[in-house]
Design brief:
Elements: H1 56-59, E1 74-77, E2 89-90, H2 92-97, E3 108-111, E4 121-124, E5 126-127, H3 129-137, E6 141-144
Parallel strand pairs: 1-3, 2-4, 3-5, 4-6
Length: 145
Amino acid sequence: MKLHELQPALGSNKEAKRKGRGHGSGNGKTAGYGHKGQKARSGVKKAGFEGGQMPQQRRLPKRGFNNIFATVYANVKVQDLERFEDGSVVTTQTLIDAGIIKKPLDGVKVLGNGELTKKLTVQVAAFSAAAKEKIEKVGGKAEVI
């Protein structure tokens, strides 16, 4: 295949509908906008305009604050680490492969919910104090990467 032989997939490229090109085209004269009225005029299709009624985006209260710079962790409970074999190394990738988390987001944080009986080396972005204590109590390592 050569560059000049490339073609788009059949049906993927449609011709633009040519409005207002005579009544024989099926879309002439009023070009799909009907006769008179506000919606037939130019410059009145303002997004969110409700005919002078207070628009919904202004009627609803704005509350709180969204910190767009916040670090969002994918949380993992200590009890979820129980499914790994004794002595194994747990990383973000092994947690994804095991189906414990779907996306790592800004990193993985291990929380102290539940109990742990296996000696594991856990390498993630953050630990709660309780989680770190529980991992080290059974002889494992909590390493921040």
